[in-house]
Amino acid sequence: MELRQLQYALQIASEKNFSRAAEKLHIAQPSLSQQLSKLEKELGVLLFQRNTSSVELTHAGASFVSKASDILDAVELLKQEMADISQVRKGKVIFGSMPITGSHLLPYVLPAFRDHYPDIEITLLEDSSMNLEKLTAIGKTDLSLLSLPLQESSLSYVEIAEEQIDLAVPKEHPLACKWEEYPDLTVDIAELVDESFIVLKKGQGFRKLTFDLCQQAGFEPKVVFESNNMETVKSLVATGMGITLVPRFIARAPRSEFVPVYLPLTAPAPSRTLVIAYRQGRYLSGAAEAFIQTFKDTMQTLLD
Question: For 127-252, where are the alpha helices, taking DSSP H only?
């Protein structure tokens, strides 16, 4: 049995006519009929019922065409994998990102990637971490920027960076004033038991991390305001409405008019692990692999 015979059978099944199938395959009709007869003889079954007006699949033929289609798809995938191994060329990566984290990291990552791989297209999909996990699990994204722990058990991941968590307080807060006097000051999360917290709304992974860290310190955070946007959270802290925890990459971002004071937390300082996640068992193209490596290299540069 040859691959071309599988292709011939699929084309005949699609066209239901030998002449049209031969034309699409760019071979002579007698040659196509001969190859099909040879295949049926080898298999010991009749794949097509011929009549004067059309060609119809037999029961055996329907089963054969279904399996042959799977085989040819697998062959094409294998060719793609081998081409990617030999050389990263044109391609496309659908990348999911948490909006705020992505807004601070992707301006560094994407230009670096474009410089090295100008013919690979990156399509960006932004959503909450909860939704991104679901989209990645069903294959709507090739890769997604998330933080551990992941809730979807069907996802695999590559660790990108360990990002420290800082405390954000208003400039007039006693801790901010104390930090000006003692620059080596660190804050134990347990000291924040009576503070008012401004946090992200449900569905955001960093909200859960904030609650987990407070609970590990022995208290439930007293939430006075929630927002979908970390930039809003930071600005509200700066105006004196409360305090919050902020990932360090976001805390390092260019300053705006409303800027809180960022204080380090007591060792071992809490952190979050940023990862690039993908569906388990999903083949990662050379383009996807290159994007992951570029992301890791860029993050290392930012951390140095």
Answer: 129-137, 174-181, 205-216, 230-238, 248-251
